Amino acid sequence: MSILITPETKIIIQGITGEFGARHARLSIEYGTQVVAGVTPGKGGNTFEHAGVEVPIFNSVAEAAEATGATVSVIFVPPPFAADAILECADAELELAVAITEGIPVRDMVRVKRAMAGSKTRLVGPNCPGLVSPGEGEDSKGGCRIGISPGYIHKKGHVGVVSRSGTLTYEAVYQLTVKDIGQSTCVGIGGDPVNGTSHLDVIKLFNEDPDTHGIILIGEIGGNAEVEAARWIKENCDKPVAGFIAGATAPPGRRMGHAGAIVGGAEDTAAAKIKVFEECGIEVAATPSDMADALLRSAKAKGVTLS
């Protein structure tokens, strides 16, 4: 079992005819993902082909969803057009929209956030690596890969990973896999200041998933999303949880990396977030290379065997 996606999930790729979208469409098809449609306005009626798979292209998300039964769309649309691409998913009442695009203007995302309030469509991202639910084949093929994560480093198993950072997601996954510990689902939620799904949203889903036995939560400086999640974990989650906060050496007031990674309030600093993690019973990884070991420490303390 996994959260949000399964190997049977049918997905649309918005921007499949662009260089970036096409490259990752090919990688997802090779992974075994059910890529059933592409969307590029003005190019409807064409076909995207790779490895013997023919993917029809439509002019709109609504047309693609109606014709194929797709429930999820991944967005590789340039920043000026990405907000409207996300809203197309909401108008088509998809279950999930995953926005990979980096550099969407904040004012556009504020408009998207307001328009999607009450929508049946969940947004992951923007500026995120997407999601992976590993399969059982070689290099975890046969699962569902949505976005840009390297599929081959994953392994099917029982640890959930949620992160604002794509690179640290890959690092945590790699550490787990080389220790022969698999993942149920890995979710990159992105680092922009205005995004869709939060750490807490994903943590709640992992907590409800009986096939997720442990969780790695990766955050960074800026905002209070990690603190919100940690306090909820303390009150509601008995599963082992390890946490890491990036940006501990960032000078106060300076923007680091992601657009959202800037210290503003008292609970925005790495030191403050780490302190809250410790108070909430989350095993803190001292460095990025300690993330899997931190989860193993937490699992041992709770008497949980991870696989």
UniProtKB/TrEMBL annotation:
Pfam families: CoA_binding, Ligase_CoA. Pathway: Carbohydrate metabolism; tricarboxylic acid cycle; succinate from succinyl-CoA (ligase route): step 1/1. This is Succinate--CoA ligase [ADP-forming] subunit alpha. The keyword Nucleotide-binding applies. GO terms for biological process: tricarboxylic acid cycle. Its EC number is 6.2.1.5. Residues 4-104 form the CoA-binding domain. CoA binds at T17, G18, E19, F20, K43, I100, T101, E102. Heterotetramer of two alpha and two beta subunits. It is an enzyme of class 6 (ligase). Succinyl-CoA synthetase functions in the citric acid cycle (TCA), coupling the hydrolysis of succinyl-CoA to the synthesis of either ATP or GTP and thus represents the only step of substrate-level phosphorylation in the TCA. The alpha subunit of the enzyme binds the substrates coenzyme A and phosphate, while succinate binding and nucleotide specificity is provided by the beta subunit. Substrate binds at Y170. Belongs to the succinate/malate CoA ligase alpha subunit family. It catalyses: succinate + ATP + CoA = succinyl-CoA + ADP + phosphate; GTP + succinate + CoA = succinyl-CoA + GDP + phosphate. It comes from Pelagicoccus albus. The active site is at H258 (tele-phosphohistidine intermediate). GO terms for molecular function: nucleotide binding; succinate-CoA ligase (ADP-forming) activity; succinate-CoA ligase (GDP-forming) activity. Keywords: Ligase, Nucleotide-binding, Tricarboxylic acid cycle. NCBIfam families: PRK05678.1, sucCoAalpha. It comes from the Bacteria. One of its GO terms (cellular component) is succinate-CoA ligase complex (ADP-forming).
